[in-house]
Amino acid sequence: MSVFIKYNKPGSLGTIFNVQVLWRFNSTTAETVRKEEDEEFRVLDILKKRDRQQKRTARKVNIQPDRADRMATDQNWGNVWPGPKTFHPSSVPLPLRQGYVPKGQAPPGKKANAELMKIPNFLHLTPPAIKTQCEAIKKYCTEWPKLLNSEDAIEKHYPVEVITSDYCHASPTIRNPLARIVHLRVKLSTLNLDKHAKDKFLRLVGDCYDEKTDFVTFVSDRCPMRKQNLDYVNYLLTACYHESWNVEEWEKEKCEDDMEYYDWDNNASKKSLVNWHLRCNNQEINLTDEEYKNYDISKISNANGYKEAVSSLMNDGENEDTVKNYGSAVRKLFGLPERKFVQS
Amino acid sequence: MFSRNLRNICRRYSQNVTFRTVEASPAQQNDNQIGLFYTMDKNLSKKLFGQGGLPKSYMKQTKTFTETSLMVRQPALDVIECIKSSDLNQPAIRYVLYGEMGTGKTLTLAHLIHYAHDDGFLIVHVPGVSQWLWKVPRLKEMSNSQTREGFVDLPLDAAAWLLHFKSQNQVLLKNEDLKISKEYVWSKRETTPAGAPLADLVEQGIARVKYACDVIDALVYEIKQLSNNNKCKTFVAVDGYNCFFYPRTRLSTPTKKVVMSEEVSLTTSFMEITKNDWKNGVIVVTVEDISVPRDHQESYLPRYLLYKKGFEHLDPFVPVKVDRYSEKEFLTCASYYRDRLWLRGPEQLESELKLASACNPYKFMELCAPL
């Protein structure tokens, strides 16, 4: 076709004429062939006797009424629905409706309702059912200790708390990987630790200790099973506890920088205070470290306030208040006037 | 031309206004003058701060305003009162000025230096430690110390500082009583004999830059001796003192080894003079977060900026907080700027500027600049 167009200039009279002739010839032959096929004469069938079929009579089927309708009102529900199972409309004599519909319409009823089957139901956990089940297993239980009558008592006698989570959901598997995680927490004050052991224990557990609540929390999710994780956190607690009681050889090398709190008596601050005091009285300064440590500061007026101010500045962290306290303590020590605060 | 001169004169003598005080001597100022501006004598300000000591932006402003005006503020008065009431025969008391960036620690220090000058103190003023150790040009003149092993000298800085010291203490250095206690031998031919005036020592350092750091070391020793012997009283002021305790410096030796701040000989000298083992002295230092690099600017409180080492070095010290402007101070400052035609516009502008600057003096100044 492309070749055809290429060699025939568009618009020239001769070409148009030729093409038209070709098209006409083809269409006329096609029409003649169709006419020959439709030759047969069709009969007009007004009454359509051939297509009429016999009327189907509805066959009578003996259908039992719904079970839900036949239930007695005083039946024992626990027998009808003894355990967890998927919703079944005929077993539940309740006019339930469930499902999303456009506004203004009623939700679909309970029969053939997939929505009701999808959600988990607790029809087996009615209060009477629970009661009977509890009654049934009561014979296996021992009596609750009478002395454990309050939260405090429980906490005192059972300080270790193990927290796990169970997950209930509808899915092909009933296992949830999160169920393996075990938290074990215990209050630090309930552990039997001395000064050294407590310091070491805190250094060992690091972030696991919460200062506000005094709880040491071990969390384990490293093993695939809950039992294994539980064993592991128990091991952690035991190991940390016993390790903190050990005193290693290198722990004697602990110096002032490694201290967990600021002890003013051991620090340079006391030294400089004593030096300052001696200089004020024009005394010789040749004290050993021991003498500095044991120097009685009660002779120096206002020194106790200064000691507390420095200790709080170091232990509580530096902020506006501690710096201000420190300033006023130093002013008292030096006998300087207090700072006036202008009213703005 | 005539009208401009007249206007200038009027502006210069606009003294009888509410935001100024005629009390130009810091020793006489009291609480009634808090928030008011006083004008420092031109020659005096050139003498005290000609070689540095005031912030750059403030220097520009003094040029624009044709006067060096300082606001009388509570921290400075507080320290002055403390100095007055303290016994100078006791060991020197250290004051630490701290506060947020731009609240006027350096200007408070300048105010105190003015007081010290008027009161006859020998002034040992370090205008910017950070210019020695941290905010340094890429190629800084430095050499290994000849006298002390493992130390680094900054001879040019030391000589510049000696010049500053000399110009600040022009009057006192003429005093014949200030004599050197022992002989200093610089080289085979150069010695400073015992009994020579203190000014000779300073001159020696300026003339022979090579020995400037050693001269400073000797000077510090001599000043302490003289103060102990009641020959003079000394006012030590160090701006950006915490820079001495930031472990690193921007200096590096020819072998590309970073110099620690305690390896600079100037550090040891000024560490020596800020100890409290001498009397007849007052030591005022400022701690600034901007004089150390960004990684140590989280707080402006002294213990954080000084590190444990610096805190123990200064302890016990009197912390003095320099706060932002109070209501009254802000208003007088605004009216001062209006007087200087630095701030124009409607009255409501003040409240807007107050909110925008949050009463921070430096920010307020910055915001007023384009107005």
UniProtKB/TrEMBL annotation, chain A:
One of its GO terms (cellular component) is mitochondrial small ribosomal subunit. Pfam families: MRP-S28. It comes from the Eukaryota. Residues 176-245 form the Small ribosomal subunit protein mS35 mitochondrial conserved domain. Keywords: Ribonucleoprotein, Ribosomal protein. One of its GO terms (biological process) is mitochondrial translation. GO terms for molecular function: structural constituent of ribosome. The keyword Zinc does not apply. This is 28S ribosomal protein S35, mitochondrial.
TrEMBL record, chain B:
It holds the Pfam family DAP3. It comes from the Eukaryota. GO terms for molecular function: structural constituent of ribosome. GO terms for biological process: apoptotic process. Keywords: Mitochondrion, Ribonucleoprotein, Ribosomal protein, Transit peptide. It is found in: Mitochondrion. Its main location: mitochondrion. The keyword NAD does not apply. GO terms for cellular component: mitochondrial small ribosomal subunit. The keyword Iron-sulfur does not apply. Belongs to the mitochondrion-specific ribosomal protein mS29 family. This is Small ribosomal subunit protein mS29.
